[in-house]
Structures are given as C-alpha cells and as structure tokens.
Design a protein that fits this description.
The chain is an alpha/beta fold. 47% of the residues lie in helices and 10% in strands.
Length: 331
C-alpha cells in the first residue's frame, strides 16, 4: 500500500476519532451465485483477503464479546479495532470464509435467519433472484402477459419485469411463489440440490471453532414493513430458538435490511427486556441514540476495494459533521 494512502487513512481515523469499524458481508465466492447476483456485488476470495489485509493493517480484530466490553465499559481504545460479520447464514461462510479467518486469526459473527437453517426455506429476495435468472432465458410474450396479471402490471419486456420483481417486498411472498410455479421453478428442489444455507451441524462446529452466532430475525422481513408485534415476535422467537438449538446465551441482533424506521421504544425494549447486548444497523460510521446500537459498513454495494470504501466512509462522516447529521434520529 502506498505510503501516502497509509498516512491518509491514519489521519482520517485521528480527525474523526472513529476507532471502531464494523464491516459486513453476506458471502464470498469464486463462482456465480444466481440467487444473490442481482442483489449484491459478491467478493471473490482474492478480493476478500485483500480486504482483510487492509483491515488488519490499520485496526485490531476483536470478537463481538470484546466489542461489547469496549462499548459497555466505555474503554479507551489505544489502537482502532474492527469486527467483521456476515448476514443470512450462507454456506460459504463455513466452507470458504471461516478457514481464511482462522488462518489470519480474525474473529467474526454470523447473523442467521432461523427459518432458513438446514435449508428449510429461502429468503424471499433470493427467490426473486432465482426467478430473474430463470426469466433471462425466457422470451415469451404470453408468459409476460400471464405474469402481468399476477402483478397487475403490463410489461414491456423482461427488463421491465425484472425491475418490478426486484421491487417486491415481504408482503408479496405469495405472489413470488405463484410466479415461480408459472415458470416451473421449484424452490424446494433448489434448496435440496444446492443447499445455500448453513446446516445445524455446521453452525455447531463454527461455535466450537470460536465464531459467534447472532440473530438476523426468523425470515428476514424489512422491519419497516411489519407491525410492532410482528417485530417483537421475530426477535423473541429467533433468540429463543437459537438458545434452544445451539445453547447460545449471548444475544446479538442485526436488523434485516437495516434499521430504517425502527423506533427508540423498540431499541430500548430489545436491549433491556430481551437482554440483547448489541444490535446493529447498516449506516456506516454514524452514531445512534444508544451506544449499544451500532452501525456496520456494507461492503457489497460495489466491487470497490476495502480501502476505497472505508476512506469514503470517513470523508462522508466529516462532511456530515458540518451539518450535524452524524447521529441517527429516532422517534
């Protein structure tokens, strides 16, 4: 790494005093993953290892329990630290990511969706990804008309259809299933043959290896699209299931899709009543109303290297500081 870049990163850390960074991913793969390809820019192994080398150069790796101790005690951090996490509990964490992290001595947390463990079901956005991949090979006006009836849209072409599909939400699950049937896509068969998620045995082994497992809700709804009671159910049932199945006592939660419109009351309930040590959004270097609710840095919005992503985060933080917009406001 060029000396000028090293100096710049160190200066940015010093100027902002942001000595904790929380990069997060979904998966790492050298081969295309059709269910995720339309949603995230998946890192290959070489790029991911370069990311880790960058983080390790400027930050000390810490476990999520160590991160909690730092936050709880308000410990002075002499050297900046980072904690890396992965959402959704995809199988590549076990087969690809974990061996790399173990070799480099870097702890990590995997946030899992309970309903998808052992490949019992598939995240609705991943279902859409498979539908889009299947439709790319179909040029059929009659089919477009049939799908248009389900979605109440008159489609011009497949590109138009893809945009509509990618805008569908948690409440559209039944429509997603109906579309899959029309085009002959069997999600159960896909899960059986491809097994995109971690199995219970793999999770148990990861825990033995020292990796942490946290909750990412039962089935990955966007919390702004569900009511307060449903939000609480998603959290409580997920925590209880993880404790029952894997004896996980330490409670950590990452909000699926982020924490947009999550109110202060829910955060207070989560940390106090549900004994959640830390919860996470995805707003980068921003602060929040509670020091126990922290924000991670999305690493898959593009294929830019970690150095560029982190540098942008610091510069953006400085720009926002002039406007007083470095803290998330909640009702």
């Amino acid at each position: 790494m060029q000396k000028s870049i090293q100096i710049l990163i160190k200066r940015l850390i010093h100027i902002t005093n942001r000595k904790i960074i929380l990069p997060f991913y979904h998966t790492v793969s050298n081969t295309p993953l059709h269910f995720i390809g339309n949603l995230y820019a998946v890192r290959d192994v070489k790029t991911f290892e370069r990311d880790l080398d960058f983080f390790s150069r400027f930050y000390e790796p810490v476990s999520i329990n160590q991160l909690y101790e730092i936050v709880q005690k308000g410990k002075f951090i002499r050297k900046p630290v980072f904690h890396i996490s992965f959402d959704d509990g995809l199988k590549e964490f076990y087969s690809i990511v974990a061996p790399i992290l173990k070799r480099k001595g870097i702890p990590a947390t995997v946030f899992v969706n309970n309903n998808f463990i052992d490949n019992k079901d598939l995240f609705y956005r991943y279902k859409i990804g498979l539908i889009v991949k299947e439709l790319n090979s179909i040029q059929n006006k009659t089919l477009l008309d049939e799908l248009g009836k389900i979605l109440s849209v008159s489609f011009i072409d497949n590109n138009h259809l893809e945009k509509v599909l990618l805008s569908m939400t948690y409440k559209d699950i039944q429509k997603i299933e109906d579309i899959a049937k029309i085009i002959g896509l069997d999600f159960k068969e896909y899960l059986k043959n491809n097994k995109p998620y971690l199995s219970s045995n793999e999770i148990k082994d990861l825990i033995k290896q020292g990796f942490a497992i946290g909750s990412h809700s039962l089935d990955h709804p966007f919390f702004k699209h569900i009511k307060s009671k449903q939000q609480q159910d998603q959290i409580v049932k997920s925590f209880n299931d993880l404790e029952e199945r894997f004896n996980i006592q330490e409670r950590y939660f990452s909000f699926p899709f982020g924490d947009e419109r999550v109110n202060a009351e829910l955060l207070s309930w989560l940390h106090k009543q549900e004994n959640c040590k830390l919860s996470f959004g995805i707003s980068g270097l921003k602060e929040d109303i509670s020091r126990f609710h922290m924000h991670r840095i999305p690493m898959e919005k593009s294929l830019k290297i970690a150095r560029s992503i982190i540098r942008h985060q610091y510069v953006y933080f400085i720009m926002k500081s002039f406007l007083g917009k470095n803290k998330v406001k909640r009702k």
